[in-house]
Amino acid sequence: GPDWPNPPWSTFLLRSLIENQGFREQFINRFADELNTRFLPDRIETHFDNLASVIQQEMVLHEARWNAWVNWSTEIQEMKDWVNNRQTPIKTHIANRFGLLGSYNLTVNNNPTAGIVELNSLTIDETSFSGDYFTGIPITLTAIPAEGYVFSKWTGASNSTNAQIQLEPDTTTTIEAVFTAVP
What percentage of the chain carries pLDDT values higher than 90? Predict the structure, then answer.
């Protein structure tokens, strides 16, 4: 809403950019890319655990200095619980905000020895990637062969022989880039 902390002047640029369909689609896909990688609950929990192990000794000193006891492990667990329950409301918010009909699961299978796949803003250099994307928003896939290989075709959701394709699935989808060794 327009109240604090989002007065109209502070959101003007984003609101204006969102009116452009291309920007809106890139924004939504980038949001999904981040939810499917950087903001996965397991990844954030690991980050919390790493930070907690560094801060733990300081918490002991903090409690001693200020004669204040903090239930450190409970606080960490509350943050982890919040993160584990956050993905669904975020996806629902994006779908509602942009009038989308929901999401679907996308799996990209890959042979990283032969090449990689770029999915929107992500580089898939593992054998399999899976994530949720929004219905009605086209995704872009680009097959990039490794040295000594050429891109042959896509299999699964597309049989295209073009290295770069756009898909707009509405149900669970699997796709794979097929690379062939250069003789």
Answer: 81
What CA–CA distance (Å, rounded) separates 110 from 107?
Answer: 10
In contact, 134 and 105? CB cutoff 8 Å = no
Using CA atoms of 79, 82, 84, 89 in order, give the dihedral in degrees to the nearest 10.
-150
pLDDT for 23-79, tens place per residue? 999 999 999 999 999 999 999 999 999 999 999 888 888 888 888 877 888 888 999
Using CA atoms, how far residue 117 sits from 12, 69, 141, in Å, is 35, 50, 7
Is the pLDDT confidence value at 125 over 90? yes
Average pLDDT in the 144-149 region?
A: 98
**Of 171, 152, 155, residue with least CA distance to 163:** 152
List residues bridging with 119 in a β-sheet: 122, 141
In contact, 95 and 103? CB cutoff 8 Å: yes
Cα 155 from Cα 174, distance rounded (Å): 8
E strand or H helix that includes residue 88 = helix 87-97
Count of Cβ atoms closer than 10 Å to residue 57 Cβ = 9
